[in-house]
Write a structure and sequence with these properties.
The protein is 8% helix and 36% strand. The protein is mainly beta.
Length: 342
């Protein structure tokens, strides 16, 4: 209990310091040196700015992500240039020289901006088989566990304050936990028109996607006089949430004959009334074969990131090369401002 209260106090103090410092704070590391942190996308010391994080930044097959010295190979290779990629199949069959690590990335294959990104230390993984949550630190090492009192936990969604775990079959309810692993609330799952395909976390509560189509916000009934106890209601949402505030949503569909189709909406707080912002069908190269969509997320800057499962493709066109990678998941970052920016 003391640890949980101390964490809450620390977060409050950091928020107050950031507010007073206009997005920048200095913290005494305990060894006589101060460390600077900033919520802005700029170095707090020199002021150099950085673009928004992009999934392609973390792919050594992408120009946005590969090391500019070795082009994503992780090695110092004579005769290798930017027209090729870090994907080994294209160079390891002919290269016979000594494998010397790249002096810039030291064999890590990514550009410096990508290597500088680290987790914030709060990673949660759902272990459905053992019915528990695993908490990892910034290095990926286990830092704790929390037992899940559900018969068949299947979905996990998180934000900065809460974790939502859904059992959509046996117990049919959502457990709401804090990051210390304590259960804060239980939400019964009402009858749904089809199977659950995704779970999302929003400030106002969990959102459930049904059959890759409809999305509903799950809210607990107020318990008015005469109402049955411990009941939840479903409120329709225009599409998958693109932010934690649930003020933007996207409805994306894919059909082999029609390709990708997308609608974006602005969602009013409280009423959830949606206003369509744009509708478009972005073209796609004829070289890839898409099985189905996997994810749709906002990038925090008005763009939309779409994940899809692709097979037998020469080039997925979805943000990275997929050569010889059947049944792989690839992502595309759609940033057409006239269509996807709010």
């Amino acid at each position: 209990m003391y640890k949980r209260q101390a964490q809450e106090d620390l977060r409050r103090w950091v928020r107050e310091a950031l507010d007073m410092g206009k997005g920048t704070v200095k913290i005494d590391s305990g060894d006589g040196r101060d460390r600077s942190f900033s919520t802005r996308q700029a170095c707090p010391s020199c002021g150099k700015g950085f673009p928004d994080l992009d999934p392609r930044l973390f792919s050594y097959n992408s120009r946005q992500g590969w090391c500019p010295s070795c082009f994503g190979t992780g090695l110092r290779l004579d005769g290798f240039d930017a027209e090729q990629s870090g994907e080994e199949i294209w160079w390891n069959s002919w290269y016979e020289g000594e494998e010397v690590p790249c002096p810039v990335c030291r064999g890590k294959r990514l550009r410096p901006e990508a290597l500088a990104v680290t987790p914030n230390g709060r990673i949660a993984v759902l272990d459905s088989v053992n019915k528990r949550l695993l908490f990892l630190d910034a290095t990926g090492r286990p830092s704790g566990t929390a037992e899940i009192a559900l018969a068949e936990p299947r979905f996990l969604a998180v934000d900065n304050d809460r974790l939502y775990v859904l059992d959509c079959d046996a117990d049919r309810k959502v457990l709401v936990l804090d990051w210390a692993g304590a259960v804060r609330e239980t939400l019964p799952l009402p009858e749904l028109p089809d199977v659950v395909t995704a779970l999302f976390a929003a400030e106002v509560g969990p959102c459930v996607e049904v059959a890759h189509d409809s999305v509903f916000l799950l809210t607990k009934d107020a318990g008015a006089a005469g109402a049955a106890p411990n009941r939840s209601s479903l409120r329709s949402v225009a599409g998958r949430p693109l932010d934690r505030t649930l003020t933007r949503a996207a409805k994306v569909t894919f059909a082999p004959t029609k390709g990708l189709h997308m609608k974006t909406f602005k969602v009013e707080r409280g009423s959830l009334k949606a206003t369509k912002l744009a509708e478009a069908s972005p073209g796609r190269p004829s070289t890839h074969k898409v099985e189905h969509l996997v994810s749709v997320d906002g990038d925090g800057a008005g763009g939309v990131i779409v994940g899809a499962r692709v097979t037998d493709a020469v080039d997925s066109g979805f943000g990275q090369s997929m050569r010889n990678k059947p049944a792989a998941v690839s992502y595309t970052h759609l940033t057409l401002p006239t269509i996807y920016s709010v």
